Amino acid sequence: MSPLYQGNTCPPTTNPNATCTLGGFPSYVVNATTVKQIQLAINFARNTGIRLTVKNTGHEFSGKTGGAGALSVWTHYLNDILYLPKFDDEVQKYSGPAFKGGSGVIARDLYKAAEDKGKIVVGGEGQDVGVLGGYIAGGGHSPMSPTYGMAADQVLSINIVTPDGEFVTASSTENKDLFWALRGSGGSTWGVVTSVTVRAHPGSPITVVKFELTASTSKTFWAGMKAYWKHFIEYSDAGIYSYFYLFDVPPVPTMQMIGFWAPNKTKEETAALLKPWFADLEALKMSVNASYITYPTAYPAFINTFPVEAVGGDQIVGSRLFPRENFRDPNSAIFNQTFDAWSTTNSSLLIGFNIAARNVHNVSNAVLPAWRETVMHTIMGVGFPNSASSAAEKRVARDGVTKSMKKWREVSPGAGAYLAEGDIEEENWQMNFYGSNYRRLVSIKKSIDPWDLFWSRTGVGSEVAKVKSGDALQNENGPLCWT
User: Fold this and answer.
1) Could you tell me the CA-to-CA distances from 93 to 286, 300, 305, 364 in Å, in that order?
2) Is the whole model's pTM more than 0.85, yes or no?
3) Parallel, antiparallel, or unpaired: how do β-strands 349-354 and 374-383 relate?
């Protein structure tokens, strides 16, 4: 969990006399290794009224795995993996290989298991993310999304302990409303998932391109980035996934391409895709020293391309899904307005994903509908000096995110934002995180969890309570109070 949303009450220090309190961390933790342990924890919380939280690996931007004074169920050790040579689902029209994994399985372990069977599974670029936990529950974007869709689209069956303490299976034929909701509407809402079964796809070679981009002036740099934007639809339609960092630091911004990910493409085919953009860069006198590597399979491509990510710091995060319509015509007003809103963001760090996430398998689930028209998911991060910053400094940073998010929303009305990497103070979060699915989700929530036992900030039905922390920024360092 980001220390910012824990409350920064126990920062790392070399001072033996420094103070440290739990803050937004839970007071009690069940290291769950069996279903019975989870059932006991849920029943205890429901019968006593203690706040209940769920944590897997804690890769979550807004502190939802925490809660002051709470009882936490830790699922990290539910990490068995089973290969199923054939799984049949007549409703979802799937018959083929699958993997069943505990909700604590991390990405690189599942990728390795798939590699050993000559397969690939859809998961995120974060190697140590609990890929079958909150990641897949929130939808889960992936380097393989342009090819196979969202991670939640791959789900065939889920085992879960529900708020009443029952251990049930949710699938296309059992507990169908719950199954629909579990795939895309976020974690810590419906119960504690113990295992998930997902589709496995044929292994394939992956070509990866890496490079850094800079320029002699800021004007030239942004012209080069705008030239990149002109190819976003072409690239995502070709199955390409791009993950890049943009550091807007004087005197001139720089861009680092973490991975231009090209499944089933040779070096020559990938270079041909990049050639028009690189020609534009050359005309701008911007040099690119790109490295091309073709991996025979996905596992080494994942491990060697994407870094292990650090714990979040003192940065306030916001994100937006920008739709295909904004990129159709590079000469249109909306294209230029979108680029201007993005390139003038009040942030020293922009993270970008050129991605498509179409509903390849034609499944019905709770994934935010805006994902299906997305060609760019982007994240901003606005920081402040340190954890001891004054309340005023923190609010200045907070206001910077709010103003930039307003500009992003204005050029993408009706789109949305990725729940798992979104703004903790997202305006109209019900529509921006859930879209047209929200009304149905609330109805299912009331049926499954009439006690509101599973509560998380901006989670489905979370309007019923709020955390009173008394801090300048919203965090989990305070009691959960019913409204």
Assistant:
1) 49, 31, 33, 12
2) yes
3) antiparallel
Q: What's the sign of the alpha-carbon dihedral 221, 227, 230, 231?
A: negative
Render each residue's pLDDT in the chain as its tens digit; 483 residues. 578 888 888 877 889 888 899 999 999 999 999 999 999 999 999 999 999 999 999 888 888 899 999 999 999 999 999 999 999 999 999 999 999 999 999 999 999 999 999 999 999 999 999 999 999 999 999 999 999 999 999 999 999 999 999 999 999 999 999 999 999 999 999 999 999 999 999 999 999 999 999 999 999 999 999 999 999 999 999 999 999 999 998 999 999 999 999 999 999 999 999 999 999 999 999 989 999 999 999 999 999 999 887 766 778 999 999 999 999 999 999 999 999 999 999 888 999 999 999 999 999 999 999 999 999 999 999 887 665 568 888 888 899 999 999 999 999 999 999 999 999 999 999 999 999 999 999 999 999 999 999 999 999 999 999 999 988 889 999 999 998
Instruction: Calculate the alpha carbon distances from 26 to 50, 61, 72, 252, 476 in Å.
Output: 11, 17, 6, 43, 9
| 149 CB burial (10 A radius; 0-12, 13-18, 19+) | buried
**Residue 12 Cα distances to 3, 20, 27, angstroms:** 10, 9, 19
Question: What strand order describes the sheet that includes 192-199?
Answer: 81-89, 94-102, 192-199, 155-161, 167-171
DSSP letter, residue 80: -
* Residue-level length of the chain: 483
* Helical ranges in 28-90 per DSSP H: 35-48
Which candidate, 355, 340, 365, 451, places its Cα nearest to that of 155?
365
5 vs 424: CA distance, rounded Å: 9
First to last CA, the chain: 26
Token code pair at residue 348: 């020293």
